[in-house]
Every structure is written in C-alpha cells, then in structure tokens.
Write a structure and sequence with these properties.
By secondary structure, the chain is of the alpha/beta class. It is built from 11 helices and 11 strands. It has a single domain, classed as 3-Layer(aba) Sandwich (Rossmann fold). The protein is globular and about 55 Å long. Keywords: Hydrolase, Signal.
C-alpha cells in the first residue's frame, strides 16, 4: 500500500497536455575536489555550491549512482535535479566510487605495516581487495584501479561503503571550514546504493558525530570502535533524509543482513526518513521498494513498533523507467516530474532543520567502516 503525507504537501495536480513543463536553472559551476579513503584510494568529486545556501541552513545533498562498469558521476540525468536543488538553496556533492571516472589512483598500496594502512594489506578491506580486485601479487605494487577491468562487481559492493564514509569525512571538513553544515545531510541514490546507504547509516549511528579526543594524539580509525568512545551524539542523527530511485536488492548481500542493518541501529528507521520512488509500470522496482519499506524498515509498524512518519513509497505514474533514468524527463508526460517530487520531499524534511547549528567535527584522517563486522563475518 502506498501512502504519501508530507509536512509540506507535494503538488500532485495533473498538468494539461499543452502546459509548459518546469525546467530548472542550470546547476552552479562545480568545483572539483579530491579526498582519500581509509585504505588509500584517491576519490574525485564535484561540489555544486548553492548561491542561496543560507535559505536551507547550508544543508548538503549527496548524489549516489550505482557502482558498475561504464558508470561515473557525470553520466545519467542528474543536472536538472542539481539545478533545482541549487536554486532552492541546497548544496550538492557528487563523487566517483573507487575505480570509476576519475577515482582510479591507489595512493597507499602497501602502507607502513600498520593494520589500518595499505590498500592491499590493511586488516579491514585488505582481504576484500586481495580477493576481488585484480593485481594483488604484482610488483611493483599495483597503484591504479579501474572497475571495468579490475573489480569483481558481483562480490565487491559492500566495500564501497568506505567511499561513502570518506565522502562524509570530506564534507565534515568542509563543514569545519564553513562551506556546508553537516548537521543536515541528505542522500539521493539509485539502484543498489539503497542497500549501501542502509549499511552506511547503521555505521553512522555507531560513530561519534564529533571526533573523540583520544590519548597520545591517536585518531579515530574504524566504525564500530571501542565502547570507550560511545557515539554521543551519533553521526546518524545528521542524516535528515534519503531518496532512493528504484531501490534494488543486491545479489551480493543476503537479505537478512540488509534487514539487520536497520534493526541494529534502533534509531535509523525513526530518524533517517526515506522516499522510495519507482516507475508505476515497473513491477520489479515496485517489489523491491516495498521490500525495503515493509521488510527492512517495517515502516507501517507492528504491535511493538509505531509507524514511521515521513517515510513513503511513491510510484511515478505511467512509466517503467528505472533509477537515474527517472530523472531528466521534462519533455515526457511524467506528472509531477520526479525532480519536483524529490525537491519537495527534501524541502519538507529541511523545514524544521534549517536553523540547526553547525558543529565543529574535528575529524582529520579517514576512518574505515568495518565491512566484515557489518556482514557478520566477525
């Protein structure tokens, strides 16, 4: 059953056939930025600063395309959405996953004998990199990574959560410089990024929002970390909402594991609000969206759990387009445009958060999300 009830209602009025469609202003000119993952991959991103950022409290929206061959952050129909978000006051950040687009350099292949350094040798993702990335035994050590030729896509998906963690740290550093306010972070993703997002959110609820002061100048290294450094306040509370375009259940992650992520972080379902968009004529997309909504988030509630407010299923009428292809269709008869629906949803979520105070985060070095822990492998 689909339901939609927002604090700021979405406009669902059907347009006459000859009515002009609403086109967004072009997105702001992006600034190219680079940052490192905890296992030493250099990622490239684009930051679209909104000239009206004060209108939304300098909130930032992160765009996520599904990893895979021949994909990068410049492909897909994102520009109309980025333009609308910028015009409404949202900053936008998008980046390339490891091995995609410009994110191909391994800057720390072998590390310094620390368990937390080296792409091939660290104790958290090193084993995954050795098994599912070609080139481990090369000498000199392989220092580049390309998804089309080097990565086993069917097994490697969970490791990308560390790229999302690196993007969050990069935004926290921009927060400390006054460029954004990471007290309000939003995700807009397609396909399998919905599952990646669930894993990352579970980790964010286990991570302190502000870097803990550790003895002897040590830095925070991985999520979860010792209970001596309890997440108070937790970083998960900063994620105000997520929109998933044709959420997809990944074959590489068991379904009970995805459900466990939402249940292990008890505040996730109630605080990280979500909108699941899919084509009304896309049967597979509808089934997967309903699986996330009913089975993972249990959004309609049970005898023990109250229903989740502001989390919805939303079928886009008269289309079987999927994922990023739902965007950029202003010339088609989609009413309302998915971009308008996304913007209205985020604006509704941000209405009560626009005055949130920017916190100094103090994170300096990248940290891992322990893939093995969140997959139940240790």
């Amino acid at each position: 059953m689909c339901r939609l009830l927002l604090a700021v209602p979405l406009v669902l009025v059907l347009l006459p056939l000859d009515a002009p469609r609403s086109f967004a202003r072009p997105p702001s000119r992006p600034v190219e930025e680079a940052f490192n993952t905890a296992d030493g991959v250099r990622l490239k991103g684009l930051f679209h600063r909104s000239p009206r950022g004060d209108k939304q409290g300098d909130a930032v929206v992160v765009l996520l395309y599904p990893p895979g061959p021949d994909r990068d952050m410049l492909k897909g129909n994102w520009d109309d959405l980025v333009g609308r978000l910028n015009d409404a006051g949202f900053h936008v950040f998008r980046f390339d996953w490891r091995g995609h687009g410009g994110s191909t350099d391994i800057v720390d292949p072998l590390g310094d004998n620390s368990p937390f350094t080296g792409f091939w040798t660290n104790t958290i993702t090193g084993g995954w990199n050795q098994r599912y990335v070609r080139g481990y035994n090369r000498r000199p050590a392989k220092n580049e990574l390309r998804v089309k030729t080097d990565i086993n896509p069917s097994r490697y998906l969970p490791v990308y959560v560390n790229d999302l963690a690196a993007a969050r740290l990069h935004l926290d550093q921009k927060n400390d410089n006054g460029d954004v306010n990471t007290s309000s972070v939003y995700l807009v993703g397609a396909g399998e990024t919905a599952a990646l997002g669930m894993m990352w959110l579970a980790a964010e609820w286990a991570r302190p929002a502000v870097a803990p002061l550790l003895p002897n100048g040590l830095q925070y290294k991985s999520v979860p970390q010792s209970t001596l450094y309890a997440p108070d306040p937790p970083a998960g509370a900063d994620v105000a909402g997520a929109v998933w375009l044709t959420a997809d259940r990944p074959a590489s992650v068991p379904e009970p594991t995805v459900r466990a992520w939402a249940r292990s972080a008890t505040k996730l379902r109630d605080n990280n609000k979500m909108l699941f968009l899919y084509g009304a004529d896309d049967g597979a997309g509808e089934r997967d969206a309903e699986w996330f909504y009913h089975k993972v988030l249990v959004a309609d509630g049970t005898r023990e759990q109250v229903p989740v407010e502001q989390t919805f299923l939303y079928p886009v009428a008269s289309t079987r387009l999927i994922g990023m292809n739902l965007l950029g269709q202003a010339s088609r008869r989609l009413t309302p445009l998915p971009e308008e629906t996304v913007l209205d949803y985020l604006a509704a979520r941000q209405k009560d958060r626009v005055t949130m105070v920017r916190k100094t985060r103090n994170y300096v070095t990248p940290y891992f999300v322990d893939v093995n822990y969140y997959l139940g492998l240790r």
